[in-house]
Amino acid sequence: MSRVAPPAAVLTAGMSSWTPTESRPEPGGQPTQPGPAGTAGPVGPTGPIGAPALGLRGLSKAFGAKQAVEDLDLDVPTGSMFGLVGPNGAGKTTTLSMATGLLRPDRGTATVLGHDVWTDPARAKALMGVLPDGLRLFDRLSGRELLSYVGRLRSVPAADIASRSAELLETLGLADDASELVVDYSAGMTKKIGLACALIHAPRLLILDEPFEAVDPVSGETIRRILRGYVQGGGTVVLSSHVMELVESLCDRVAVVAQGRVLATGTLDEVRAGESLQQRFLGLVGVREGGSEALAWLRSSSV
Amino acid sequence: MVALVVGLKLTLLRNGLRRSVWRTVGLIIGMLYGLGLVVGALAGLIALRWTSTVFTADLTVVVFSIITVGWMALSVLVFGVDETVDPGKFALLPVPARKLQPGMFLAGLVGTPGIATTLIVIGLVITWARDVPLALAALLAAPLGLATCFLLARTATSAFSQALASRRFRDFAAVALALFGAVIGITANLIGNYSGFHPDQMRGLLARAATVLGWTPFGWAWSVPAAVARGDWLGAVARLVLAAALVVALWLAWRRFLERSLTSPLTGGGGGGRQVRAGTLVERLFPATPAGAVATRAMRYWRRDPRYLASLGGICVAPIVVVVTQLANPHRTQALIVFAPILITLFLGSIVASDISYDGSALWTHISTGLRGADDRWGRVMSTTLVILPISLVMIIATTAITGELGQLPRVLALLVVMALSGLGVGSWIGAIWQTPAPPPGASPFAKNEGGGAAALILFGATTGLTLVCALPTVALVVGSVWLPWLAWVALLVALVTGVLALRAGVRLGGTRLDRHWPDVLTAVTAKS
Question: What positions belong to coiled-coil segments (chain B) (predicted)?
């Protein structure tokens, strides 16, 4: 990660207070020491030795007759920036919902650092921060109130909530709108406040569904910096996207998902296999034919 | 366009039923109820053909005026309006409100209340089809009356919901809503006070009521055939003109509201840039625990979310109605005024129970933060208590001041305490088991879908019934204290004990149930209502 300029310098220095290196007493694990400038190396795992940050085994979910996710296995190693890519309707959101305890799987298990999401939800949920896609926030609260609400729900000490939310709002460029109701935020601002909510308790694992959607390029770069710093500090990020270039530039590990199954997974280079991620993705998923001949009537302007 | 919109409504209804069993159950119960009403009304209307035209005239004017008032009152206060076909969804299409309106009108009538009313109105035409002028008058009046019912309900709910959503008129609208409910209730009660007279007096009363109602907007259309029956041709023409003018006016008013939802469908109201003061007073009211956080958040929603403001109006209406009616009655019953504050607790259970449904998909926050179900329950109980407490105190002080009956205080307190505490407990438990379809935040608080009204009624019945069961020991002791006055103090003690027990049990049961079923609850409240 390249060293970063002023706004991020504040961020990197300040992040020591909420990168995963220092968090509230974690169940079953030793609290670890914050490293200098938030760049401490990976820390001892809280779960069984060698447990992946996120482990999915045989996850399946059907909605009526439609099999959204079928027998899906996935391992996300600790300390990785993991990109989940797939076409629309591939089952990315369904998979992430089941991994975060928001949707009950028909079969299969999900573990966070060795803690089962479905049999030991309290521990698993304390370790992860979540940004779902397409679900509301408590949007009659202002940005600051929402952050403090999530912090208090997670029993973060009041002093930490105050300092962390001030820092998060400042870093994400929401400080001026912090007293405005979230319902009046733009789509991008809503994504950013959602991300802040996912970070407030300094989780060990971040699960982000489409975190860059509707976010402007400047904020997008800020979020990328935050995530890189977070991974450098020993945290793990799982994010879904269908922008291949973004995943290629940000993630070190990738899984390609289509029709509820994992088609390929591994490090970025393993999955790419010498091609660009875009080409490899199209090769795996299959290109729809007739892109140029179809919709001929659109070409002659009807106005 | 008309066929398209009506077809859309039918398709949406069918798809909605396919998604939810409860909706089907609600719809079937509603339809059975409607069917019963329709059969009864049609039988009555056909039987009227064997009575005098004057009697028929008086009776139909009174009954149909009440139906018209009922459409408006029930839409505003109880059921809301069926927004299955949301006009805001047409905002991107090049369709002006003028072209959309006839379709929206017919689509709105497609539904249990609309179809039932239409059938009953056809019954009115049947009863008047005695000679050609009468039949003609009824045929002219029936569609006008039907349109008045529907359009009054639509314009009233649109006006109220826009006022509730705007910052400036919000409080005013909440008060106006409560007053409107109170006026309806008081009128109904006052009419009730006159019942029990001799049949002859009743007949005279009916005639007078028909005369008065026939000149109100609710009765204009219905009194056209009635006036013809009396040979009052001038009156008939005057009412016909008035009724037609009213329908046109309501039609245009409704179009204004449609236009607004077509051009600005996205605003939650009040426009952007709403700043809230960084007040921490609310945060300090509750303990610094997850449950306290839930309570703080809920308090802010009571203040900022029109859906909560609307239910606040509902809480206050019933006691005010009773007190005012009794004060207006020369032969007032002191006891009714004294015990009126207890009625505050009537909706408490269903308010707490539907709280979780109001969250909608935002509930994921509680789940992913690993909030314990019991903390969720306690938080909501705490905020509702804080809302109810001052209202109860004011009401009790007011009614005691009016009557001066300090001696009744232990009885009133006993009943209020046990009903409130067990209502909160029952609501906490039932809310964890069953989530009703609720309008999303920012939508009109009156928007309900087919079956939503029936679901609300079932929820109300279940919570109230269970609450009463919990209150039975206290009620028995209060009744007993009529003979043994010291039992009132025992009742107060028992009320506290049973109330606290019911509350704790409800919170614990509800909490455990939530801990086990969080994802299923999220699915239930996220399902598009």
Answer: none
The model's pLDDT over B246-279, given as tens digits with 9 standing for 90+, comes to 999 999 999 988 888 777 654 444 444 566 665 6
Total number of domains constituting chain B:
2
pLDDT at B100: 86
* Minimum-distance CB partner of B370 among A125, A152, A183: A125
| Predicted local distance difference test score (pLDDT) of residue B350 | 86
Q: How far is B159 from chain A (nearest CA, A)?
A: 22
**Secondary structure of chain A in HEC code, one letter for each residue:** CCCCCHHHHHHHHHHHHCCCCCCCCCCCCCCCCCCHHHCCCCCCCCCCCCCCCEEEEEEEEEECCEEEEEEEEEEECCCCEEEEECCCCCCHHHHHHHHCCCCCCCEEEEEECCEECCCCHHHHHHHEEEECCCCCCCCCCEHHHHHHHHHHHCCCCHHHHHHHHHHHHHHCCCHHHCCEEHHHCCHHHHHHHHHHHHHCCCCCEEEEECCCCCCCHHHHHHHHHHHHHHHHCCCEEEEEECCHHHHHHHCCEEEEEECCEEEEEEEHHHHHCCCCHHHHHHHHHCCCCCCCCCCHHHCCCCC
In a domain, B276, yes or no: no
Full domain range(s) for residue B25: 1-263
- B368 inside 8 A of chain A by CB: yes
Which of B201, B234, B263 is a domain's end point?
Answer: B263
| Domain match, B298 and B403 both | yes
Q: Domain boundary residue among B234, B263, B292?
A: B263
Interface with chain B: mutation pick from A94, A106, A128, A140, highest number of B CBs within 10 Å: A140
> Are residues B217 and B345 part of one domain?
no
User: Do B180 and B319 share a domain, yes or no?
Assistant: no
Residue of chain B nearest A127, judged by CA positions? B369
Residue among A140, A152, A184 whose CB faces B301 most closely: A140
Residue B59 forms part of a structural domain: yes
Interface contact flag, B305 A150, Cβ < 8 Å: no
Tell whether A150 is within 8 A of chain B (Cβ). yes
**What is the per-residue pLDDT across A15-74, written as a single tens digit (0 to 9) for each?**
444 444 444 444 444 444 443 333 333 444 444 456 899 999 999 999 888 899 999 999
pLDDT digits (tens, 9 = 90+) for B29-43: 878 888 999 999 999
Would the CB atoms of A135 and B364 count as touching at under 8 Å? yes
Asked if A132 and B304 come within 8 Å (Cβ–Cβ), the reply is: no
Are B250 and B313 in the same domain?
A: no
Burial (CB count <10 Å: 0-12, 13-18, 19+), residue A214: middle
Q: Is residue B134 domain-shared with residue B31, that is, in the same domain?
A: yes
